[in-house]
Amino acid sequence: MHLLFADWYKPAQFNADEEVLAKRWQGIKQLYENSPREFLDDLVRFVFTGEMEEEHSTNFKNTFKKLDANFLMSDNNNELLVLAGCVLAYVIYDELKDFETIATEILSASLFNAREQKSGIDLEGIANSIISKAAIINRERPKIEKLKIKPLSKAAIVAKIKKVEQDQSWESVSEGLNGVVEFVSESRKSFQTEINVHLKPILDFISIQDEELEVLWWQVNGWSNIANQPFEKVSKNSKALIFGKETARLVECKIELPNLVGIFSKLGIANSGEISISEAINECGVEILKKMSDKNYCKLLTPIHAAANRATETDCGDEWILGWTKLCGFSNERKLSPIDIAIQFHRESLIKRKIFPLNSDE
Questions:
Q1: What residue spans define the domains of the chain?
Q2: How far apart are CA 74 and CA 67, in angstroms?
Q3: Are 289 and 311 a contacting pair, CB within 8 Å?
Q4: Across-strand partners of 35?
Q5: 40 closest CA partner among 104, 128, 135, 121
Q6: CA–CA separation, 345 and 348 (whole Å)
Q7: Do the beta carbons of residue 291 and residue 226 sit within 8 Å?
Q8: What is the pTM of this model?
Q9: CB-based contact 25:12 (threshold 8 Å)
Q10: Burial level of 51, CB count in 10 A (0-12/13-18/19+)?
Q11: What gap in Å lies between CA 26 and CA 20, rounded to an integer?
Q12: How distant, in Å, are the alpha carbons of 63, 129, 195, 349 from that of 136?
């Protein structure tokens, strides 16, 4: 059982004994190991909206029911939300497969706490902490260790060679030659696998360094391709969205840059004072918004892209705002610092690239 599981499960307000906790934890591990990747995305939706696809919901409940006959299949929404949060916390905290994407999805859906997350677990805090840690670790220079190739067993090939020595018939020689070819082929595969294991962290590090260099050159160049003008001429309230989008287009890595706040601060985006998302959207104008968004958006995970799309339909008139807030589920009265808006739009852009890989403005 995970060291923190009892803490994560506490909001369920269920006086579970050690046996019940063990069964719940077993269910959580089974769900992660046996469910498709889309199930985790649906759990993110569930902890924010209380909604889940019927197939995923049935599988979710049945997993725990099979382990515990006393598990309630109805009127048990609070525990279901907590268990969903536990699965997500487990994936992020233990840095399991796709933890970077899941963590970014949670932070983007939260929109700096503009939306309420219903699991009772501080998933936003866990996501922020792990992303920050992973961003630093992924940028540490990898150690290059001496290449150690584990030799394949020669027993099988030796046996075939001895057989040829004893019986030099065509069938025996042919079998021996085939054995040699197979041994050489397997040796090459083993060698290539070992090479790839050693090279991957080096290549990942080079890729990250290359992306950071691209961001640096973009800063030094001082030109916004989206606004088509120097940084200093980009209007104050539109910088957050424009620069958030441009930095996202310069990177491919799963983990966001560890110094986004510093980058945006140097570009003149304020970390104090607050504006509404609608103000930032309308300040950009229709032509720039069309360069930054299209009809492909997710109302939960990419709400600012949804806003940009709605605004272009009304030439940035205020009539789009009410429909957008109802669609995305939060009030336009909620204001953020320009840097928070920039980081949000940056994260949304990274998520959008994964949701719509073949049809995106990214």
A1: 5-137, 155-207, 222-355
A2: 16
A3: yes
A4: none
A5: 104
A6: 5
A7: yes
A8: 0.84
A9: no
A10: exposed
A11: 10
A12: 37, 11, 25, 21
Residue 329 CA to residue 332 CA, distance in Å, equals 10
Q: Sign of the C-alpha dihedral, residues 88, 93, 99, 101?
A: positive
Task: Note whether 327 and 334 are within 8 A (CB).
Answer: no
Question: Degrees (nearest 5) of the Cα angle 224, 317, 320?
Answer: 100
In total, the chain counts a number of residues equal to: 362
Q: Which residues contact 33 (CB under 8 A, 6 or more apart)?
A: none
Taking only the tens of pLDDT, the chain with its 362 residues reads 889 999 999 998 777 889 999 999 999 999 999 888 899 999 999 999 999 999 999 999 999 999 999 999 999 999 999 999 999 999 999 988 889 999 999 999 999 999 999 999 999 999 999 998 888 887 888 877 766 666 666 776 777 677 777 777 878 778 878 877 887 788 788 878 888 877 888 888 888 888 889 999 999 999 999 999 999 999 999 999 999 999 999 987 666 777 889 999 999 998 888 999 999 999 999 999 999 988 889 999 999 999 999 999 888 888 999 999 999 988 888 899 999 999 999 999 999 988 776 554 55
Give residue for tokens 């027993």. Answer: 155
Q: Which of 337, 353, 244 is nearest to 288 (CA)?
A: 244
**Burial of residue 4 (number of CB atoms within 10 Å: 0-12, 13-18, 19+):** middle
Task: In whole angstroms, give the CA distance from residue 123 to residue 106.
Answer: 7
Q: Which two tokens stand for residue 345?
A: 């739009």
